[in-house]
Specification:
Layout: H1 3-6, E1 8-10, E2 13-15, H2 17-28, H3 34-41, H4 45-57, E3 77-85, H5 90-102, E4 106-111, E5 118-124, H6 127-140, E6 144-151
Antiparallel strand pairs: 1-2, 3-5, 3-6, 4-5
Helix pairs in contact: 3-4
Length: about 170
Amino acid sequence: MSPARAAHYHGGMELDRFDRQLLNLVQEDAGQTAERLAEQVALSPSAIQRRLRRLREAGVIQRQAAVLDPRQVGRPTFFVVSLQVERERPELLAQLRRWLGAQAQIQQAFYVTGEADFVLVVTAPDTESFDALMLKLVEDNPNVRRFTTNVALSLVKRGLTIPVPLDEAD
Protein backbone atom coordinates (compact mmCIF):
# COMPACT_ATOMS: atom_id res chain seq x y z
CA MET A 1 0.00 0.00 0.00
CA SER A 2 1.42 3.40 -0.92
CA PRO A 3 2.18 5.92 1.84
CA ALA A 4 -0.43 8.30 0.40
CA ARG A 5 -3.08 5.60 0.49
CA ALA A 6 -2.05 4.43 3.97
CA ALA A 7 -2.14 7.95 5.35
CA HIS A 8 -5.30 9.37 6.87
CA TYR A 9 -6.09 12.98 7.48
CA HIS A 10 -7.28 14.44 10.73
CA GLY A 11 -7.98 18.14 10.68
CA GLY A 12 -5.49 18.55 7.86
CA MET A 13 -2.76 16.46 9.55
CA GLU A 14 -1.56 13.34 7.83
CA LEU A 15 -1.54 10.29 10.11
CA ASP A 16 0.45 7.29 8.96
CA ARG A 17 0.38 3.77 10.38
CA PHE A 18 3.11 4.58 12.94
CA ASP A 19 1.17 7.62 14.20
CA ARG A 20 -1.96 5.49 14.49
CA GLN A 21 -0.13 2.76 16.41
CA LEU A 22 1.30 5.38 18.76
CA LEU A 23 -2.09 6.98 19.33
CA ASN A 24 -3.61 3.63 20.32
CA LEU A 25 -0.70 2.80 22.64
CA VAL A 26 -0.56 6.15 24.46
CA GLN A 27 -4.32 6.11 24.97
CA GLU A 28 -3.93 2.85 26.88
CA ASP A 29 -0.93 4.09 28.91
CA ALA A 30 0.50 7.55 28.28
CA GLY A 31 3.21 6.89 30.86
CA GLN A 32 5.12 4.45 28.66
CA THR A 33 8.68 5.49 27.92
CA ALA A 34 9.80 6.23 24.37
CA GLU A 35 11.96 3.12 24.60
CA ARG A 36 8.97 0.92 25.47
CA LEU A 37 6.86 2.49 22.72
CA ALA A 38 9.74 2.01 20.26
CA GLU A 39 9.72 -1.74 20.98
CA GLN A 40 6.04 -1.92 20.05
CA VAL A 41 6.05 0.40 17.01
CA ALA A 42 9.42 -0.53 15.46
CA LEU A 43 10.80 3.02 15.42
CA SER A 44 13.70 4.53 17.35
CA PRO A 45 12.97 6.21 20.69
CA SER A 46 13.96 9.59 19.20
CA ALA A 47 11.52 9.07 16.29
CA ILE A 48 8.80 8.22 18.82
CA GLN A 49 9.51 11.42 20.76
CA ARG A 50 9.43 13.54 17.58
CA ARG A 51 6.13 12.00 16.47
CA LEU A 52 4.51 12.45 19.89
CA ARG A 53 5.66 16.09 20.01
CA ARG A 54 4.19 16.68 16.52
CA LEU A 55 0.89 15.01 17.51
CA ARG A 56 0.69 17.20 20.64
CA GLU A 57 1.54 20.40 18.77
CA ALA A 58 -1.08 19.62 16.10
CA GLY A 59 -3.72 19.06 18.80
CA VAL A 60 -4.31 15.40 17.93
CA ILE A 61 -3.19 14.59 21.49
CA GLN A 62 -5.02 17.21 23.51
CA ARG A 63 -3.80 16.26 26.98
CA GLN A 64 -2.67 13.37 29.13
CA ALA A 65 -4.40 12.36 32.33
CA ALA A 66 -4.07 9.79 35.10
CA VAL A 67 -6.97 7.35 35.51
CA LEU A 68 -7.64 6.79 39.20
CA ASP A 69 -9.21 3.82 40.94
CA PRO A 70 -12.38 5.23 42.56
CA ARG A 71 -12.04 2.79 45.48
CA GLN A 72 -8.65 4.26 46.35
CA VAL A 73 -9.89 7.86 46.53
CA GLY A 74 -13.04 7.64 48.60
CA ARG A 75 -15.45 5.64 46.43
CA PRO A 76 -17.27 8.51 44.72
CA THR A 77 -20.74 7.93 43.36
CA PHE A 78 -21.36 8.29 39.63
CA PHE A 79 -24.55 9.86 38.28
CA VAL A 80 -25.83 9.96 34.70
CA VAL A 81 -28.01 13.03 34.23
CA SER A 82 -30.38 13.82 31.36
CA LEU A 83 -30.95 17.56 31.14
CA GLN A 84 -33.66 19.44 29.25
CA VAL A 85 -33.60 23.17 28.50
CA GLU A 86 -36.51 25.54 27.90
CA ARG A 87 -35.14 27.26 24.79
CA GLU A 88 -32.27 26.30 22.53
CA ARG A 89 -31.18 29.86 21.85
CA PRO A 90 -27.46 30.00 21.01
CA GLU A 91 -26.52 32.44 23.77
CA LEU A 92 -28.37 30.41 26.42
CA LEU A 93 -26.77 27.16 25.25
CA ALA A 94 -23.34 28.83 25.25
CA GLN A 95 -23.86 30.01 28.83
CA LEU A 96 -24.90 26.52 29.94
CA ARG A 97 -21.96 24.92 28.13
CA ARG A 98 -19.53 27.29 29.89
CA TRP A 99 -21.13 26.51 33.24
CA LEU A 100 -20.97 22.75 32.67
CA GLY A 101 -17.36 22.99 31.51
CA ALA A 102 -16.34 24.85 34.67
CA GLN A 103 -17.65 22.21 37.10
CA ALA A 104 -14.99 19.71 38.19
CA GLN A 105 -17.64 17.17 39.25
CA ILE A 106 -19.05 17.03 35.71
CA GLN A 107 -16.73 14.59 34.00
CA GLN A 108 -18.45 14.53 30.62
CA ALA A 109 -21.20 16.57 29.01
CA PHE A 110 -22.78 15.69 25.68
CA TYR A 111 -25.18 17.84 23.65
CA VAL A 112 -27.51 15.16 22.27
CA THR A 113 -30.57 14.46 20.15
CA GLY A 114 -33.72 12.95 21.59
CA GLU A 115 -35.79 13.85 24.63
CA ALA A 116 -32.85 15.25 26.58
CA ASP A 117 -30.74 18.13 25.34
CA PHE A 118 -27.64 17.20 27.35
CA VAL A 119 -26.40 14.01 28.99
CA LEU A 120 -23.92 14.45 31.82
CA VAL A 121 -21.64 12.07 33.68
CA VAL A 122 -21.19 13.44 37.18
CA THR A 123 -19.16 12.20 40.12
CA ALA A 124 -19.69 13.23 43.72
CA PRO A 125 -18.60 11.90 47.10
CA ASP A 126 -22.24 11.43 48.14
CA THR A 127 -25.82 12.28 47.18
CA GLU A 128 -25.78 15.45 49.28
CA SER A 129 -22.90 16.87 47.23
CA PHE A 130 -24.66 15.85 44.03
CA ASP A 131 -27.89 17.52 45.17
CA ALA A 132 -25.98 20.73 45.98
CA LEU A 133 -24.44 20.73 42.48
CA MET A 134 -27.82 20.20 40.82
CA LEU A 135 -29.39 22.97 42.92
CA LYS A 136 -26.59 25.31 41.81
CA LEU A 137 -27.11 24.19 38.19
CA VAL A 138 -30.78 25.17 38.30
CA GLU A 139 -30.13 28.42 40.20
CA ASP A 140 -27.34 29.55 37.86
CA ASN A 141 -29.09 28.43 34.66
CA PRO A 142 -32.77 29.43 34.62
CA ASN A 143 -33.04 28.00 31.09
CA VAL A 144 -32.83 24.46 32.56
CA ARG A 145 -36.34 23.01 32.38
CA ARG A 146 -35.72 19.74 34.21
CA PHE A 147 -33.28 16.93 34.73
CA THR A 148 -33.50 13.25 35.53
CA THR A 149 -30.82 11.29 37.31
CA ASN A 150 -29.62 7.71 37.18
CA VAL A 151 -27.31 6.57 39.97
CA ALA A 152 -24.61 4.14 38.84
CA LEU A 153 -24.77 0.99 40.97
CA SER A 154 -21.37 -0.25 39.82
CA LEU A 155 -18.62 0.79 37.45
CA VAL A 156 -18.51 -1.72 34.59
CA LYS A 157 -16.23 0.16 32.21
CA ARG A 158 -14.75 3.63 32.11
CA GLY A 159 -12.51 5.17 29.51
CA LEU A 160 -11.88 7.87 26.99
CA THR A 161 -9.98 5.91 24.36
CA ILE A 162 -10.94 6.37 20.73
CA PRO A 163 -9.95 3.33 18.66
CA VAL A 164 -7.74 4.56 15.82
CA PRO A 165 -7.83 2.23 12.79
CA LEU A 166 -4.39 1.27 11.54
CA ASP A 167 -5.47 0.91 7.91
CA GLU A 168 -8.04 2.66 5.71
CA ALA A 169 -10.12 -0.52 5.53
CA ASP A 170 -10.46 -0.71 9.36
